[in-house]
Amino acid sequence: MATDFTPTALRRIAVPDRRHHLEADLVLPENATGLVLLAHLPGSIAARSRHLLATDLLHEAGIATLHFPLLTDAEALIRANSFDLELLADRLAAATNAAARLPECASLPLGYLGDSTGAAAALVAAARLGRRIRAVVARTGRPDLAGPWLHQVKAATLLVVGGLDTPVLGLNHLALEQLECPRRLTVVPGASHLFEEPGTLEQATRLARDWFQHYLHLRAQAH
Asked: What's the half-sphere exposure (Cβ side, CA atoms, 13 Å) at 78?
């Protein structure tokens, strides 16, 4: 259910990096109850549409977002960079630390939403940062690529996969077996890899929103 939260003006923050000048876009609703970092690679118009839908639903739920492409456009042209999990996880951790240093974000419970290899990077970063990260959602993701880091993840983790995306579904099952945190794999019926079928993307995104609402709020109450 939507709330009365209204996003403030967009704020751009610097993310420290040895190679490039990187920036992330922060939107902070009034009385935000958590902050979700969107971990993804530069992509197509369709990919940007997926991110916009996610941010809209999270803002309506009173959850702040940090939109952060893990690679520059030039880096994304080199395919190997998209699978360099050390680089991607380092940058996501840097963005997390940059956001946490802001007074308005310092007390917010943190979550990650990752697509594709960004999902694996989110899990690696979550494993490194331990209980600082409360929840992770991997949507259309490859969490299996996080390999040896999976058993170290403490954050409650939701894997969302299209029912028609058979190869990736199998890889998500393998990753689920290695996770030792609170976890769930949810299949969206009739959806292919990118949730292009009518209504499937919204269904997948609402699942992510509900997961964050539950675990960010739950853990915030417990602390």
From this structure: 7
User: For residue 18, what pLDDT is reported?
Assistant: 87
Give the predicted TM-score (pTM) of the model: 0.92
Do 11 and 64 meet the contact criterion of CB atoms below 8 Å apart?
no
Angstrom distance (rounded) from CA 121 to CA 129:
12
Rounded to a whole number of angstroms, the distance between the first and last alpha carbons of the chain is 25
Question: What are the backbone angles phi and psi of residue 154, rounded to the nearest 5°?
Answer: -100, -25
Which top CATH class is 11-222?
A: alpha beta
User: Which whole number is the average pLDDT over 141-166?
Assistant: 96
SS3 99: helix
- Alpha helices by DSSP H, listed for the chain, are 45-60, 73-76, 85-100, 117-129, 166-178, 200-222
pLDDT for 41: 86
Mean pLDDT score, 180-187:
98
Please work out, in degrees rounded to the nearest 5, the angle formed at the alpha carbon of residue 88 by the alpha carbons of 84 and 201.
Answer: 105
**Pair 92, 68: CB distance under 8 Å:** yes
